[in-house]
């Protein structure tokens, strides 16, 4: 009596190899998936702007007081102008590490750096 | 036997499916949400197996924080703090308010008044938060400091007594920490063992990050993009007070929001003070006291609170760690 392996045809093995190939390629694809660090901005409780941190960008973000100007450049994401009275958001400087937060509280603008690859970040949260 | 072929292929597919399910079952989920409250960004991070459970826990934690903010903030007319400030002799307060004030009075006594919850009038006079702050006249400062100090407030049960009618209660140096602590209690109640609540840099780290102990960066007080140190903590509060976020400069002096009750002006002994301790409320109060006291007296005070460690950056930029700080230090 033939064992199950002996009844496998070349076509069967081809299907098995294809399935294995798909599985290996899938795992490799997942491992190599892009891990871009993103700048996520919310106004109120709504996400209003998302951009890659490594791509220069500038944007005016609307809030109840007016426009908060956010710049993304080689130093990170930072607020360069704001209608708020104290300008604390400008003095906070750039955010660039995963988990970093910036906010213009009076203008209800919140900026967060998000990255799926935060193992390489120097810290998880910043005490300031 | 032709049926063996689909059987073998089927078994391989089944094994692949089981393998896939195995790698994806029990995966740790992390939910991270932020809100603007208490004049800052509050971020809650929770990790666990069930995203719905995490979301529910975070919802309730934010709701609890909002409730307590209404009770403890001077920005709400009907808060306990506003009612106390408007009253002539004090009055009955909520149990939560009493708990905060009792802790604050303890730190005020231990720090010999360096931590002070009676600086409401002085802070209102300086109003560092306004667009163009100015240095008040010395007579106005002296008047705003009349009747302040650790003995100006006393607590008996839920009854708070003011020694002076014009005294304005200010819980700014402790209430935010207390509210973070209460949010952590909510997370624990929901079975969350790993997470964090971070209110503008005052934070509690519950358990650990999914892959490692929590790594906390400490802001460098003079390098906007610099990290002074990183620490690794678990089930601890980390709080930093610094002179670099709310300040203005005039005639070569930096005027900021941490006031020395002895002088009525901004404290001058430090650039920043970081405390690692058991609760954010205690850390909040201690970090303020350390900043006001300066390195030497500050570290002496810290030694009175077992399990608390700190790192003080003196006005000249020198670092003054407490004896046990190194046990948390990741760098330098």
Strand content of chain A is 35-45%
Mean pLDDT of chain B: 91
Strand order of the largest sheet of chain A: 2-1-7-6
The CATH topology label of the largest domain in chain A is mini-chromosome maintenance (MCM) complex, domain 2
Compute the average pLDDT of chain A.
81
Q: How widely separated are the two ends of chain A?
A: 75 Å
Q: CATH first level of the largest domain in chain B: which class? A: Alpha Beta
The count of β-strands of chain A is 8
Approximate shape of chain A: rod-shaped
CATH superfamily caption of the largest domain in chain A? N-utilization substance G protein NusG, insert domain
Q: What's this entry about, in short?
A:
By secondary structure, chain A is an alpha+beta fold.
Structural commentary:
- The complex is a heterodimer of chains A (128) and B (332).
- Chain A is 23% helix and 37% strand.
- Chain A is an alpha+beta fold and 128 residues long.
- Chain A has two domains: 1-33; 38-117, N-utilization substance G protein NusG, insert domain (mini-chromosome maintenance (MCM) complex, domain 2, Sandwich).
- In chain A, the strands form two sheets. A four-stranded antiparallel β-sheet of chain A has the order 2-1-7-6. Chain A has a three-stranded antiparallel β-sheet with strand order 3-4-5.
- In chain A, strand 1 (38-43) and strand 2 (46-52) form a beta hairpin.
- The longest helix of chain A is centred in the first third of the chain and has 22 residues, at 10-31.
- Chain A is rod-shaped.
- The model of chain A has no long low-confidence stretch (mean pLDDT 81).
- With 332 residues, chain B is of the alpha+beta class.
- Chain B has two domains: 29-73 and 173-331, Roll (T-fold), CATH 3.10.520; 80-162, Orthogonal Bundle (T-fold).
- Chain B contains nine helices and 18 strands.
- Chain B has helices at 4-24, 51-72, 80-86, 95-110, 120-126, 138-144, 175-189, 280-293, 295-303, and strands spanning 29-37, 40-48, 90-92, 153-156, 159-162, 194-199, 202-206, 214-219, 227-233, 236-242, 247-250, 253-256, 259-260, 265-266, 270-277, 309-314, 319-321, 329-331.
- An eight-stranded antiparallel β-sheet of chain B has the order 1-2-6-7-10-15-16-17, with helices on one face. In chain B, strands 3-5-4 form a three-stranded antiparallel β-sheet, with helices on one face.
- The mean pLDDT of chain B is 91.
- The A-B interface holds A 2, 4-5, 7-9, 12, 15-16, 19-20, 23, 42, 45, 75-76, 85-86, 88, 91-94, 96-97, 101, 103, 105, 108, 110, 112, 119, 122-128 and B 1-2, 4-5, 7-9, 12-13, 16, 34-36, 39-41, 43, 129-131, 196, 198, 200-203, 205, 209, 211, 214-219, 224-225, 227, 230, 238-240, 242, 245-246, 274.
- Strand 8 of chain A pairs parallel with strand 8 (214-219) of chain B, so a sheet runs across the interface.
């Amino acid at each position: 009596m033939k064992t199950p392996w002996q009844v496998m045809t070349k076509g069967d093995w081809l299907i098995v190899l294809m399935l294995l190939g798909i599985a290996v390629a899938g795992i490799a694809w997942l491992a190599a998936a892009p891990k871009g660090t993103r700048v996520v901005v919310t106004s109120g409780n709504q996400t209003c702007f998302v951009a890659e941190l490594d791509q220069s960008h500038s944007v005016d973000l609307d809030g109840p007081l007016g426009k908060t100007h956010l710049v993304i450049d080689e130093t990170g994401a930072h607020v360069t102008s704001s209608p708020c009275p104290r300008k604390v958001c400008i003095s906070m400087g750039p955010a660039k590490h995963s988990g970093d937060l910036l906010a213009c509280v009076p203008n209800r603008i919140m900026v967060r750096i998000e990255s799926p690859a935060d193992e390489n970040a120097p810290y998880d949260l910043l005490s300031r | 036997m032709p049926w063996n072929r689909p059987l073998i292929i089927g078994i391989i597919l089944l094994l692949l499916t089981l393998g896939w399910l195995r790698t994806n079952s029990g995966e740790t989920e992390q939910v991270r949400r932020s809100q603007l409250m208490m004049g800052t960004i509050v971020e809650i991070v929770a990790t666990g197996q069930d995203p719905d459970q995490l979301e529910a826990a975070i919802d309730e934690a934010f709701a609890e924080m909002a409730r307590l903010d209404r009770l403890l903030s001077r920005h709400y007319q009907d808060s306990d703090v506003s009612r106390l400030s408007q009253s002539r002799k004090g009055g009955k307060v909520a149990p939560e308010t009493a708990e905060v004030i009792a802790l604050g009075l303890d730190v005020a006594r231990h720090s010999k008044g360096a931590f002070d919850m009676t600086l409401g009038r002085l802070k209102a006079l300086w109003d560092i938060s306004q667009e163009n702050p100015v240095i008040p006249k010395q007579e106005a400062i002296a008047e705003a400091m009349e009747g302040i100090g650790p003995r100006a407030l006393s607590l008996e049960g839920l009854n708070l007594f003011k020694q002076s009618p014009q005294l304005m209660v200010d819980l700014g140096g402790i209430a935010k920490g207390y509210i973070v602590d209460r949010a952590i209690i909510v997370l624990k109640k929901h079975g969350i063992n790993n997470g964090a609540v971070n209110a503008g840099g005052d934070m509690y780290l519950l358990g650990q990050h999914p892959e490692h102990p929590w790594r906390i960066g400490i802001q460098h007080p003079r390098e906007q993009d610099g990290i002074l140190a990183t620490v690794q903590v678990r089930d601890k509060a980390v709080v930093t007070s610094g002179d670099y976020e709310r300040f203005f400069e005039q005639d070569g002096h930096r005027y900021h929001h941490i006031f020395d009750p002895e002088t009525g002006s901004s404290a001058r002994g430090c650039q920043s003070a970081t405390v690692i301790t058991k609760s954010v409320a205690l850390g909040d109060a201690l970090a303020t006291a350390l900043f006001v006291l300066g390195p030497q007296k500050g570290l002496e005070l810290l030694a009175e609170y077992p399990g608390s460690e700190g790192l003080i950056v003196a006005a000249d930029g020198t670092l003054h760690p407490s004896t046990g700080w190194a046990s948390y230090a990741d760098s330098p």
